[in-house]
Amino acid sequence: MRQILSALLVLTAAFAQTPSAKQKSFLDKPTLESYVRHLFVWPAQITVAVSDPKPTGIDGIVEVSVTGSLGGASQVANFFVSKNGEKVIQGQSFDVKENPFKATIDKLKAELGPAIGTSGAPVVVTIFSDFQCPYCKEEGKMLRANLIQTYSKEVRAYFKDFPLEQIHNWAKPAAIAGRCVFREEQAKSWDFHDWVFDKQDQLKLEDFRAKFEGFLNDKKINAPNVLKCYDSKSTEDDVNRSFNLGRAVEVTSTPTIFVNGRKLAGNVSWPQLKQIIDFEVEYQKTAKNAGEDCGCDISLPSLLPK
Questions:
Q1: I want to staple 261 with a disulfide (CB 3.0 to 4.6 A). Which of 10, 81, 104, 266 is the partner?
Q2: Does the domain spanning 102-287 belong to CATH 3.40.30.10?
Q3: Closest to 31 in 3D by CA, of 150, 234, 39, 180
Q4: pTM of the full predicted structure?
């Protein structure tokens, strides 16, 4: 009898150590996915991706990102998980020594693309837009009418393509066309921007190329060169990089504007945007931790005379 009891105790102990009997942990990806699906009421058709844990600089805490995607829409949630996996906090962590938007600012570093305003300005405005989006049309016209006219020296604005192909069938061809114009004559890429939004209701996938050619001729842009670029999709990689950058900074809809890394999703009125820019202009006079002239560049000493 004692031998039977001893054997049962050994089996019980072994079962308790099997993976199926382990305590649930938020560091287990399926467990966190299930928890988040319940938290946000995300049904099965939403694809969920859970990142690997990464350090936060806070003792005993790691960060995990959860992304839910459906078609062209996505939502990102950041979670801070205790190292034992038992507790989780949703939110953001900040370093008192850094700009609260530093991570986004670093990702949005200026690259070659359509831009207006003063190089080296203390405020950088980055616009992620879709040429076929009616809300982007409203936002684009608002920005063109007010931004540089109000801030001739204080703002540098960058346009980023974020075409939502799943719902807008000519948005990506238009983005490719715009980048081709930019390659040929940089300044006239803004003429293209204004033309597309002005003609948005009249444009269709079937006749976009023909109307685009008419625009090129009207603006005296080298049509053969630009159309060759367009037909070969030479700038598609540029558009894809812009789109992927949007994903990296958690753009989930258009229009989305960033002011020195501060995210403003959806349509923003000019008074609202102006208030934020005014605040940032004043703040950067002393902070100097954002914009294109942030005073935070690190360079090696030079022996060359200045």
A1: 104
A2: yes
A3: 39
A4: 0.77
